[in-house]
Amino acid sequence: MKQLTKTLWLAALILCCSLQQAAAQMQLPPLPVDKNVRIGKLDNGLTYYIRHNEKPENRVEFYIAQKVGSILEEPQQRGLAHFLEHMAFNGTKNFPGDERGLGIVQWCESKGIKFGTNLNAYTSVDETVYNISNVPSTDPAIVDSCLLILHDWSNSILLADKEIDKERGVIREEWRSRNVGMLRLYTDAQATFYPDSKYADCMPIGSIDVINNFPYQDIRDYYAKWYRPDLQGIIVVGDIDVDQMEQKIKTLFSDIKLPAERAERIWYPVPDNEEPIVYIGKDKEIDTPIVDIYFKHDATPDSIKGSVMYLAQQYMLDAIATMLNQRFSELAQSPNPPFNMAGCSPDGDFFISGTKKAFNVSAYCKDDGLSNALKVLLQEVERVRRHGFTESEYTRARANILQQLESVYNEREKTNNDRYVNQCLQHFLHAEPIPGIEYEYATLNQLAPNIPVQAINQVAQQLITDNNQAVFIAAPDKEGVVIPTQEEVIADLKAMPTLDVQPYVDKVSNEPLMKEAPQGGKIVSQKDNALFGATLLTLSNGIKVYVKKTDFKADEIRMSGFSLGGMTNFDAADKLNYSFMNGAVDAGGAGNFSNIELTKMLAGKNVSVTASVGSTQENVNGSCSPKDFETMMQLTYLYLTQPRKDEEAFTSFMNRMKAQLESSEVNPLSVFSDTLSYEMYGQNERFINVKASMVDQVDYDRILELYKQAFADCGDFQFIFVGNAELDSIKPYIETYLGALPAKSAKQNYNKANLLIPAKGTKENIFAKEQQTPMATVAMVITGNCTYNLRSSVLMSVLNQALDMVYTEEIREKEGGTYGVSTYGMLGSERQDATLQIFYQTDPAKFEHLNGIINTQLEKMAQQGPSDEQMQKIKEYMLKKYADNQKENGYWLGNIREMLYTGMDKTKDYEALVNGLTAQDVAQFAQALLKQGNKLTVVMTVPE
Fold first, then answer.
1. pTM value surpassing 0.70
2. How far, in Å, CA of 907 to CA of 882, rounded?
3. pLDDT given at position 19
4. Percent of the chain as helix, strand, coil, to the nearest 5
5. What is the DSSP string of 690-705?
6. Within 239-307, where are the H helices?
7. Who has greater pLDDT, 324 or 480?
8. In degrees rounded to 5, what are phi and psi of residue 545?
9. Peptide bond preceding 204 in cis form (omega within 30 of 0)
């Protein structure tokens, strides 16, 4: 299909209007550019975007985007676009990282800008993007230095021989950890989908032979050829003065020279194909079979993206995706589902190429379900092509799209920097329009009601073609997997026009969510400023409700409710049943409605509620727009009091669970995770590693019985609402629905004796499992008693961050032994204990040596604590993060819940506590944990 946009627009206009009106309306004005974005271009060709925004306050984002990626590498450079991205952090002109001055990572972390979290980059086929995020904007010196980093990335990366050789090991280990089954098949499929094309061999991770052996000049050549101002965009968004920032950019970046003779940046085309292209691959480490079907079409020309017709096009494509994805969801919830999950993307990239788009449908299925999944996908696509969508489907889709747009519009004064950054990135890299939410909201609210379902159906019909078809199938290489042949796939594609497909029947209920309100209760007391500024309401049934009104977001109210108890109050004999409880109950829906019916009923509303039984609590969580608060209360009441029994939905859920469990058994990381869990908790009577063979033993009636038992008495529930919640307007709904929850006034608690206890002592389990890419996966888990309070929590966080820094330096940078060592520390209030986990992957020949370094550095930390430099960096980051959190609804929701559940006040004297910590405090904390002698080491390697 040569020009998607013209077809889409004509289809919509001709069906909406007369031919004369359509012709007249083709003379449409261009889309405006958001007046809040300053866009400019320097004489050397560099483009810049600047936007003032105060969410969060006193913070600013710095990005540099390059319109270059791995597609531009020469054969001897395979992987060097990505390698160069790494090298950008290993020394630049003004941040050399040696005796001449701090490196970029060291300088940024000294200002609270954490590597990996706030300082990062990515490389893809057609683009490379670097970012310095959440930067304090109140210090002009920091702002100027971040601009200088962008300047250095643009044209002054040092690429020293020594640093290149050090980074080879890091990237080698990144390749090892990412060279999983799906990536291997994606890489292998490129030559099939892109014969005689640059796209045939352009995965960013590249060739391991090149990574190990390339001469230094090859990466310098790539850098000099492609990192140049006419292909670069600077983006600065945050709490800054736009005029001042523009002048700084002009002053700093104008000296970058644009080469007089420069290579053309070619956007490589992808040809059409008359006959289907089919790739079928299998791999021993693919855990779930997948089928991907593409109907290719040309990408929308950039010249058209600036017009109103493009806005209409995107709306129509969103509507198609919304409706077809809903149909797929219904099929996945059928008793014998043809797939575990399926999805549609009407205008995504064709495989890995951005220059060719595709109408794409895909599905994950069970081991013997590939052929059926393929047939069902094609059947549903043909149903859309032949019969289209129904008026009722389209009404819901339109309502959902406009509701999402309205939510963004309502938050226009509360929008985070990252959303605006992404808009600027898409405008620079892909010419996506940025008209501003005010214009987009007003325009689409005029357009959408005037685009009928007939127009949407004609667009869908044009997208689903008899040529330009391609299919990607990936399957586990094991017994029991049934894989269609290439001939069978092609035959299924060619049979589409002859399929016997009937129009979709949209089953819609006109019944209200609740026919009548329950007999509610009353608010018997109100205490203002009870906790962190929240008002405490006590209901007649004993339930306590905390409401904290904030102005952080205009269109959000968050809810969290809990009661003590949970699965620890169930018998161990029921451990299989309660392991599946939350998913099984959720699958049935609530009240009189299935999940499918609820999804349809809630179209156009911004609301979600989930109820669950955890280890020590019964929980209900949700969020809504203020206008949908009553609906959130109704759903809460129904989920807690009227879980719906649905045998078909349960059967569907269990079939999907069984398929997923069967698939995961071939994944080495699943085997590793199961082994680690067993070594930690296997001695507990209540421990269970769920396997596919157990699924048929699950008792649905018993699950529902346990669930109802858990929520039978809600009298000691505590609910928390944080956000744009006007107390007087929500009180009646709180009384009506929460006040009606059953209560017996019995104070409940969890059963401490039934908590899972980690194994004591020192133990090591080294086992071998065949892996296609030889790799050792290592986890060390250290546990012990620890008082649960704010000081311990802060000390654990500091210890965790300090170890991250040490292991990055010692294991990643010096040894080149891994892509990264991940440390994670946590405290438990129930057992008053602490857990420190250390995880990494490496060459099987290296894990013993690296484990030695990890243990040595851990002991050193327990003796000396972090260095002064590390302490300064960690404190800077923690205090910056604490300041940012003050205006986040989720932060206050969590704080109130923490205080009610554990009694810990995470805000009291936090800054003083962080500032007052010493390295010796951290050392003593680590030493107290280590000396208890509880350490588990699990290593999965490969057979010798």
1. yes
2. 9
3. 30
4. 45, 20, 35
5. --GGGGGG--HHHHHH
6. 242-253, 302-305
7. 324
8. -130, 125
9. no
